[in-house]
Design goal:
The protein is globular. The protein folds into two domains: 214 residues, Glucose Permease (Domain IIA) (Distorted Sandwich), CATH 2.70.70.10; 152 residues, no CATH class. 38% of the residues are buried. The chain is of the alpha+beta class. A hairpin with a 4-residue loop joins strand 4 and strand 5. 12% of the residues lie in helices and 29% in strands. The N and C termini lie far apart (77 Å). Strands 1, 2, 4, 5, 6, 8, 10 and 11 form an eight-stranded antiparallel beta sheet that branches. An eight-stranded antiparallel β-barrel has the order 12-13-14-15-16-17-18-19.
Amino acid sequence: MPKEKGFSPLIIILALAILGVMFLGVRYFTSPFHNNQIFKPSENSIQRQANWSTDNAEKRGQSLSHNQCQGMEIRKLGTLPMKYEDFSMIIPYGLVIGDHVTPIDHQYFSPTIFNSPRDKYEVYAMADARLVSIEPRVKPEYTEYRLVFTISCRLFYYYDLVTSLTPELKAEYDKQGRSVNISIKEGQLIGRIGGQTLDFAVWDTTIVLPGFVDPKNYEEEMWKIHTADPLDYYTERLKELALSKYIRTIPPLSGKIDYDIDGRLIGNWFLEGTEGYQGTKKQAVANYSQTHLAIVPNHLDPFSYIASFGDYNNEFKQFLIKTALPDPKEVGVNSGVVKYKLSDFQYIKKDGSNWDHMSLTQNPKIKPGESRGCVLYQLLTDRKLKVETFSNQSCNQTLEFSNQALTFYR
């Protein structure tokens, strides 16, 4: 019989050595203690457009950082912005409410005691970075702050609604103004918050969200199209802590803000004659979002659609589309005029009780409330939409567009 072939001891030793080096390399690059960690964000959060290059990403980073960012490095965020016991839940991206007519591009860390005194809770830096912007929001009774941190020209995170800065940061702000350049260490105390949520988001300038059919519409808030899933940038320990207080457990867990489908009803729209997200300076519009319109899934119950209006009888309004048939993501030019029933809504927990919006619950469901009217939509072209609302009227009536109808674009 021929002798069976086998592996020589030398080959086995070499193979084991290679595997060992590969294992150590993986351990090194996935360790939360490796500050220069390079990793690939999930496909849920990343989409590079064909004309969006690394050079474009770096230039965008320079613009967002007032020309103070450096390199294209990625380091993971390792510290919660608030103590774990100080916040009750994390509200995902994508809420539409009041004058936030299109899906909101930040999450909310909601304080354990929501109606707490101002400055009750401490706010911390999530990673080593440079603080490059402190924007005040001055009100008669107090001042709040929006803070932008750059880890590199690729990676940013920001806070808003901070109710006070530490004395050290306040002194630097008083000296340097809004465009600051301050070295920040992970875990460093930044300021305080209380009586409201803490806004938070991550930006990755190499990402261009695919659900904005014309990114140029968002130049006024250029970071919006680069909004990234925070979970992709957390250490494993931070991800575990954050997920334990996520309301939403339906992918994408962190929420979503970009729902446009070219040639379909779903997504964001802007009043014809205005200049995208910024509205227009040519018209007497007190609030730019009065010229916005959106038809999007609910941020907590994504199987329900919300019709969001910048001007519904001179008010910002959001309604449940009671029965979203045909599905807005299927409505196109050939669909003709479609009409939807509008109603109030509330959230209920798994046990059927009403959710108080203050305590952590997972995946609350929408419960329809009182009927409020009807809306007509018609796609005139792939990017032009005709809209008219009929307050407190039934969709069962014969309704047609009148001279009150408005045209939106994107």
